[in-house]
Specification:
Helix content is 47%, strand content 13%. The chain is α/β, with parallel strands linked by helices. β1, α1 and β2 form a beta-alpha-beta unit. The N terminus is likely disordered.
Length: 327
């Protein structure tokens, strides 16, 4: 979508393809963001409709029944089509859906996915060469089925004419970004204030994935080591201390982190401290020097250097972005 003036010749039309067992939260919040954008701007900036593969009532995973506006034909007139997936995504796949999605692509319609809708687009071959994301519970299985897919654990991913989000409330973050791509930030910010969202996350914010999901199988020694790190952020333990408390050698500790988390104990520990620092920067008014100490950094310059390496901006820039007035 290309930037334009606030008075478009016609509304941007979204189509939501709901599949049986779809996740209600991302679907409902995405639509509500569009509704509020219209209300706050006083203009019909967006229109939307809900479609389904067949002429039937569709039940969300919560059991709520949705009556679609139309049957999905592949001939819909719209700017963006979102596939809304959920817990039954494997059962909802069909060659007919693939053919109709391919028709949309051939007509240069932008395509997106909410929650496990990413699986449907991937299986249709419509995410080849695109960066995308999916709910963390489906990350490992999706990677196994589509090993060449550029799949991330970010809360949402926007890559040219493809828009995917992990599900849940991450749809709000993605829709905020889509509004700012087309219109000014003030409309999007007013929408967030209306739904009481204090902070909108960025596309490079990752999902909070439980450790057991990351490592795939139960690794009690690794879990204990990570727990020790999480509970000792202000006064970090060194690798020898951690391995001693876990009752394994340092080399064994390093192998566990390398095999299951694809990193070193030192790097993982540092990232934990920096992520905690980011939370404190965004959610508290603590001075930056105090945050650096709370997160185990004795030197402010070293803290700033490490922070920039991970988040691509300094702690002071992070704080300024949060406090910056609307353009």
């Amino acid at each position: 979508m290309k930037p334009s003036t606030l008075d478009p010749p016609s509304p941007i039309n979204y189509v939501f393809l709901v599949l049986p067992g779809f996740s209600l939260v991302p679907y409902a919040t995405a639509i509500d963001v569009l509704r509020l954008a219209n209300r706050i701007s006083g203009k019909t900036l967006y229109s939307w409709q809900t479609i389904s593969p067949a002429d039937d009532i569709i039940h969300a995973s919560s059991g709520l029944a949705i009556v679609p506006d139309e049957i999905f034909t592949g001939k819909e007139i719209c700017d963006i089509l979102f596939v809304c997936g959920g817990i039954k995504v494997n059962e909802t796949w069909s060659e007919s859906i693939k053919a109709r999605l391919k028709m949309m692509q051939s007509r240069n319609i932008d395509l997106g996915a909410l929650c496990t809708g990413t699986f449907i687009l991937a299986k249709a071959g419509l995410l080849d060469g695109y960066r995308c994301t999916i709910h963390w519970k489906n990350l490992s299985s999706t990677r196994e089925i589509f090993p060449k897919l550029n799949l991330t654990d970010d809360i949402y991913a926007i890559d040219r004419d493809r828009y995917t989000c992990a599900g849940g409330v991450s749809a709000i973050d993605m829709m905020f970004h889509l509004i700012t791509l087309k219109y000014d930030r003030e409309i999007a910010t007013s929408v967030m204030e209306s739904i009481i969202v204090e902070r909108v996350r960025n596309t490079n914010d990752t999902q909070c994935i439980p450790l057991r999901q990351k490592i795939g199988t139960s690794q009690p020694k690794l879990e204990i080591a990570v727990k020790l790190m999480e509970t000792n952020l202000e006064e970090p333990l060194n690798p020898n201390e951690i391995s001693g408390l876990v009752n394994i050698s340092r080399r064994q500790l390093e192998r566990l982190f390398s095999s299951h988390l694809n990193t070193t104990p030192t790097r993982y520990y540092l990232d934990l401290r920096l992520i905690n620092a980011q939370r404190l920067l965004l959610q508290t008014g603590l001075p930056i020097i105090e945050i650096s100490l709370v997160c185990g950094f004795s030197s402010a310059p070293h803290f700033s250097k490490c922070y920039r390496e991970l988040f691509k901006r300094s702690p002071s820039e992070e704080r300024r972005l949060l406090l910056a007035p609307l353009p």
